[in-house]
Design brief:
This protein is mostly beta strands.
């Protein structure tokens, strides 16, 4: 359910926010500024645009996605100096926007926290000309393929964005496509090795709405398996030319078709969302490790395609290449935010070998529902639900087979909500707040008693659920000391904060609300916008080897309040031999 769940969240995020709701998210705090300089090859660079984008955490990531105007821009003057003004007092990603150029210091984007009425100085960037990959995309007859998307993947881990940085990079990524000659040109690349491919939309939202003919994902120099692809070496300021890809007439893939039907009555389900994705094993990801209860890298499976069933409940996918896959389905109502999803589906695993697959039926069941109310608990009497704009809820369910599913809804103006189409299993609820101000889960109640999670049974309607939210104004500050060895070059230490009261079976900080931050060069860190409560704070680093990456971590528990930041000291011992 995770691939379709990702699409569901994307739809909820992109739902329009009214001007009135946006106005409710504005604060009256005094704005701040960020200033610094930009150099190119050691000399002041004029005319370079510098952009500040709100840090994508649970409190303002959705604001960033639903209202792009919150990003601020400034241009460097003749001396290479820029100044970003009128910034709200929150955390930002700051980076130069100069497509052919790359940051030579590995410091782009930079995380900057702007205080109320203050100016952050010295946010400097050093740029140089990046590398280029160019080539031609043709069909099996040698004709140019026009407007074909081209994807690249870095094989050098230190150059690949991760975590929240990856999320920010995705939102601002350039769309690489071929021109009328079938030629593409990807510029502004960091030195390193890249895998180049074409044939599928890398953006699953674009893939869903695309009406282009389906093609098998093909990798340079013309293979359909990534492991057989030839890496392209890129150096600074140079061009890697002739990186051509030809779609083979013999690799058109196969047809996969079937129906979505009611498991009990056997009747077809029209207008159901159907998607398929690669059925990945942990060995396929290269990294499948957990830090305590927090999964560092999660294999969701790359989206293969999406469609909607017709009035007979039928679906079909063309050009599916050989491999192992998983089919999933969801009702369209899940994407409206209204909580009117009615069913959940049994995922179907299938393998494409050398022929079409027909009659792959997906059976759906009437789901359970949760009805309740959301309220805000705060010392400020003005902290009402209306003040925080649009609030969404995510119900996350894990069944006895440890298969995840879920549902989403938008909270009504009076605080009421309904989550439908839920699978039986252990369930918890987490908020996604469309507000520039932080708001997080304080506690979850059922019939007046605090709970971490609760069981859902088949076709059950659960009432008496109360989701209590509180302003996220708490901070954990700390320091990580390394002992028992030295970190490898370019290694990163990260810190997560997970509510101690959260259920073991469901990680509430996944997806938009993950409380994760990098540790600075001097070992310090700060995790902001937390609700009051007790947290498990864990520092970790990944140590690669030839077989599988290993992880070293350390954890402590700390209680945070609104009165003052919590302070914590963590010791990361690299000499320990036991892996998590």
């Amino acid at each position: 359910m995770r691939t379709i769940a990702a699409l569901s969240i994307a739809f909820l995020i992109y739902l329009p926010t009214s001007a009135e709701q946006r106005a409710q998210t504005q604060t009256q705090k005094e704005s701040g500024a960020i200033t610094g300089s930009v150099k190119r090859d050691g000399k002041p660079a004029s005319g370079i645009t510098v952009i500040a984008t709100p840090f994508p955490d649970s409190s303002n990531a959705t604001l960033q996605l639903s209202n792009q105007s919150v990003s601020m821009k400034a241009t460097t003057d003749a001396t290479g100096v820029y100044r970003l003004e009128g910034l709200a007092p929150i955390k930002y990603f700051v980076k130069p926007s100069a497509a052919p150029l790359i940051s030579t210091g590995g410091n782009s984007p930079i995380e900057v926290t702007v205080g109320e009425g203050s100016t952050v100085e010295g946010i400097d960037f050093s740029l140089s000309l990046g590398g280029v990959i160019t080539g031609r995309i043709t069909d099996s007859d040698g004709n140019p393929v026009i407007g074909q998307r081209v994807s690249i993947k870095s094989l050098d881990e230190k150059d690949a964005p991760s975590g929240v940085e990856a999320a920010a990079a995705t939102m601002g990524d350039r769309m690489y496509a071929t021109d009328d000659r079938g030629i593409y040109r990807i510029f502004g690349l960091r030195p390193g090795r890249y895998i180049v491919s074409s044939g599928k939309d890398s953006d699953f939202v674009n893939a869903f709405f695309s009406r282009r003919p389906s093609r098998v994902q093909t990798y340079y120099p013309g293979v359909t398996t990534e492991s057989k692809a030839t890496p392209v070496q890129v150096t600074a300021g140079s061009e890697a030319t002739g990186i051509d890809i030809q779609f083979s007439n013999t690799d058109k893939g196969f047809l996969v078709s079937g129906r979505v039907v009611d498991a009990e009555k056997g009747i077809p389900i029209p207008n159901a969302m159907v998607g398929y994705s690669k059925a990945l094993k942990s060995s396929d990801t290269g990294l499948d490790v957990h830090v305590g209860d927090t999964q560092v890298v999660e294999s969701l499976g790359a989206p293969g395609g999406f469609t909607v069933t017709n009035d007979k409940g039928e679906y079909s996918f063309s050009a599916v290449s050989p491999g192992n896959y998983k089919l999933e389905a969801q009702s369209i109502g899940a994407f409206s935010g209204g909580g009117d999803s009615q069913f959940y589906a049994d995922p179907v695993n299938f393998e494409v070998k050398s022929s079409n697959l027909n009659k792959l039926d997906i059976k759906v069941h009437r789901g359970a529902s949760i009805i309740g109310v959301v309220s805000v608990e705060s010392t400020d009497p003005q902290d009402s639900l209306e003040r925080f704009g649009r609030i969404m809820l995510m119900a996350m369910v894990i069944d006895p087979e440890r298969s995840y599913s879920g549902s989403n809804c938008t909270v009504s103006g009076d605080g009421s909500f309904r989550l439908g189409g839920l699978k039986p299993g252990k369930t918890t609820i987490r908020p996604v707040v469309m507000s520039a101000r932080g708001l997080g889960l304080l506690r979850l109640e059922r019939n007046g008693l605090e709970v971490k999670d609760f069981e859902i049974h088949a076709d059950e309607e659960i009432t008496g659920i109360r989701v209590i939210l509180a302003p996220s104004t708490c901070v954990i500050r700390g320091h990580v000391t390394i002992q028992g060895g030295a970190l490898q070059q370019d290694a990163t230490i990260r810190v997560t904060a997970r509510p101690s009261s959260s259920p073991d079976s469901v990680n509430p900080t996944d997806f938009l609300g993950r409380r994760l931050t990098d540790v600075s060069g001097n070992g310090s860190f700060a995790i902001e916008k937390l609700t009051p409560g007790t947290y498990d704070v864990e520092a970790f680093t990944v140590i690669p080897n030839e077989q599988r990456p290993r992880i070293r971590s350390t954890k402590q528990t700390v209680t945070v309040t609104t009165e003052r930041p919590a302070e914590i000291e963590l010791i990361l011992d690299l000499s320990k031999t036991a892996d998590k």
